[in-house]
Design a protein that fits this description.
The complex is a heterodimer of chains A (about 300) and B (about 160). Chain A is mainly alpha-helical. Chain A contains 17 helices and one strand. Helices cover about 75% and strands about 0% of the residues of chain A. The longest helix of chain A is centred in the middle third of the chain and has 26 residues. Chain B starts with a helix and ends with a strand. The chains are: A mainly alpha (about 300), B alpha+beta (about 160). At the A-B interface, helix 6, helix 7, helix 8, helix 10 and strand 1 of A face helix 1, strand 2, helix 3, strand 3 and strand 4 of B.
Chain lengths: ~300, ~160
C-alpha cells in the first residue's frame, strides 16, 4: 500500500517543527519561555511589567544572553518582585509563570538541564491541577453546578457556550444588566437570573467533566502508577487544553501548560514533542477561532 | 559524608524540589487566607480560579454612616467616592482585612470633614460613625437566585 501523499504545506510545517526540535531541548524551552514573557497579556501592557518584558526581548535577540545564568537570575528577580508586590491582584498562571522561570534559571545551573526542567514541569502541572481540583471541592459552588451555571449566565467570554449549549440569547444581556445594577446600588436581596433548564443541566454535566479531567490530569502527572494513567498524561493534558481553552480562551495559561508539557515530553516521551510544539505555535489561531467564528455567525444572523 | 558531597546533595534537592514546594506553600497560604480573612479564591496563587463566583470585581463595600442627628444612610463605596487608587481598591476588595477596613474608615471620616471632598456626599453633616463591610455574590443553581452576603464582619469606626 502506498502512503497518502503529503501536501507541500504540511511537509514544510513538519520540516519546520523538526528543525526547531533539533535544537538542544533546554534551549528551545528557554526561548519559548522568553517569548511567553514578552507576549504575555500584551494587550494590557502594564508599565510594571516593562523591565521583565524588555529583558526577555533582549534575551531573544542576543543568543548569548539566552544561555546566560545572570540574565535568567535577573528575570527571576524581576518576576518574583512583581509577584510579591502584586500578590493579591495576580491570577494563577502569573504565579505559575514565575515558578517556571525559576525552574528555567535553576536548570541552567544543573548538569542535566533537560532532566531538571522535565521533573519540575511534571510536578508543577500535577500540583496546579491538584490544587484546582481541591478548590472545586472546598469552594462549595462547583459540585451542584452553581459556579458554571452562573458563569454561563453572566460572563461575556462564555456567551458562545451559553447560546450553543444552553440555548440562551436574550437572557444574557438581562442577567448582566441585573448584576451591574445590584453591584452599583448595593442591592443585597435575592434576585432572579434568567436561564433555561438545558443550561442548568449542562452546567452540572460540564462541572463534573471539569472535575474529572482536572483530577485525572493531577493524578497522571503526580503518580508514577498505574502506568497506563501515567503514560496517558500527555494526551490528558492536551484534552484538557483543547476542551477548556476553546470555550474560555486564556492564551497565556494555555501556552504555559504547553511549554511545560513540551519540556516534560522532550525528555520522557519525545514522540509527543511535535504535537505539543505544533499546538503551541498554532495556539494564537486555534484558541480564539471558535469564539471568532461564533461572533461572525452571530453578526451575520443579527443582520 | 564529605562537605562537597553534602553541598551537591543540597543543590540537587533545591533543583528538584524547591519550586514545587514553593507552589505548595503559596497555594496552602492562599487557601488559609481565603478561609480566614476572606481572600478572593481567584487570587493569591492557590489555583481557585474557576472554582467560585466570588471574584473581587464583583464584591461590594457597603458603608453605613450615622450623622449627628443619629440618622443612618447606606452607601455602596466606589474607588472614586473613597478617593483611593485602583490598585488599593483591588487590594481592599481582594484581601478585606479588618485593619485595612479600619484605615479606610478613618480616612473616610477625615475626608468627610473637608467640604471639597467627594466623601462629604456620603454624609454631609458631621459624620462621626461609620460601619464598613465587604460583601460577596452568591448563586443558587436550584432557585436561580443571586444575592449578596457578607465576607467580613462589620468594622465600626468612630471619630
Amino acid at each position: 500500500m502506498t502512503p497518502a501523499p503529503i501536501h507541500p504545506l504540511q511537509q514544510r510545517w513538519k520540516s519546520f517543527l523538526i528543525e526547531l526540535l533539533a535544537r538542544p531541548s533546554y534551549l528551545l524551552i528557554l526561548q519559548l519561555t522568553a517569548i511567553l514573557i514578552v507576549l504575555h497579556e500584551i494587550d494590557t501592557f502594564p508599565w510594571t511589567r516593562l523591565p521583565e518584558r524588555g529583558l526577555a526581548l533582549t534575551m531573544l535577540f542576543v543568543p548569548r544572553l539566552m544561555r546566560s545564568k545572570k540574565a535568567w537570575v535577573a528575570l527571576s528577580v524581576l518576576l518574583v518582585m512583581n509577584n510579591l508586590w502584586h500578590w493579591a491582584a495576580l491570577v494563577n498562571h502569573e504565579y505559575l509563570t514565575t515558578y517556571w522561570v525559576l525552574v528555567c534559571t535553576l536548570s541552567l545551573y544543573a548538569s542535566k538541564p533537560n532532566q531538571v526542567m522535565a521533573w519540575n514541569a511534571r510536578l508543577l502541572i500535577g500540583l496546579c491541577f491538584a490544587f484546582a481540583t481541591i478548590w472545586k471541592f472546598l469552594g462549595g459552588e462547583y459540585l451542584d453546578g452553581s459556579f458554571l451555571h452562573f458563569t454561563f449566565l453572566s460572563d461575556i467570554r462564555l456567551s458562545m457556550g451559553a447560546t450553543l449549549i444552553g440555548g440562551l440569547d436574550g437572557e444574557l444581556p438581562h442577567n448582566r444588566s441585573l448584576l451591574e445594577t445590584m453591584q452599583a446600588t448595593g442591592e443585597i436581596n435575592p434576585q432572579l437570573l434568567q436561564t433555561s433548564p438545558r443550561m442548568a443541566l449542562m452546567s452540572v454535566a460540564l462541572s463534573y467533566w471539569t472535575i474529572f479531567i482536572e483530577a485525572i490530569a493531577a493524578l497522571s502527572f503526580l503518580l508514577p502508577r498505574p502506568q497506563f494513567l501515567s503514560r496517558a498524561r500527555y494526551g490528558i493534558l492536551l484534552v484538557f487544553i483543547f476542551t477548556t481553552y476553546t470555550v474560555i480562551p486564556v492564551l497565556a495559561f494555555g501556552a504555559l501548560l504547553l511549554i511545560m508539557g513540551l519540556a516534560e515530553c522532550l525528555h520522557n516521551r519525545p514522540q509527543w514533542s511535535g504535537i505539543y510544539l505544533g499546538t503551541l505555535l498554532l495556539l494564537p489561531i486555534w484558541m480564539p477561532l471558535p469564539q471568532l467564528l461564533f461572533a461572525a455567525v452571530e453578526t451575520v444572523l443579527l443582520q | 559524608m564529605s562537605q562537597e558531597r553534602l553541598k551537591n546533595k543540597v543543590f540537587l534537592g533545591i533543583q528538584y524540589w524547591a519550586i514545587p514546594l514553593l507552589l505548595i506553600l503559596v497555594a496552602s497560604r492562599q487557601m488559609i487566607l481565603a478561609h480566614t480573612v476572606g481572600l478572593s479564591p481567584w487570587h493569591g496563587g492557590g489555583f481557585g480560579m474557576f472554582a467560585s463566583i466570588d471574584r473581587d470585581e464583583r464584591r461590594i463595600i457597603r458603608l453605613q454612616s450615622t450623622d449627628c442627628r443619629g440618622q443612618q444612610t447606606v452607601h455602596v463605596l466606589t474607588p472614586e467616592l473613597a478617593e483611593i487608587d485602583e490598585q488599593t481598591w483591588t487590594y481592599l476588595t481582594t484581601v478585606p482585612k479588618t485593619s485595612l477596613l479600619q484605615s479606610l474608615g478613618y480616612q473616610l471620616l477625615t475626608l468627610a470633614g473637608e467640604p471639597t471632598s467627594r466623601v462629604s456626599t456620603v454624609s454631609s453633616t458631621c459624620p462621626r460613625h461609620l460601619e464598613i463591610q465587604v460583601w460577596r455574590l452568591h448563586y443558587n443553581q436550584a432557585s436561580g437566585q443571586v444575592w449578596y452576603a457578607p465576607v467580613t464582619a462589620v468594622v465600626e469606626v468612630t471619630l
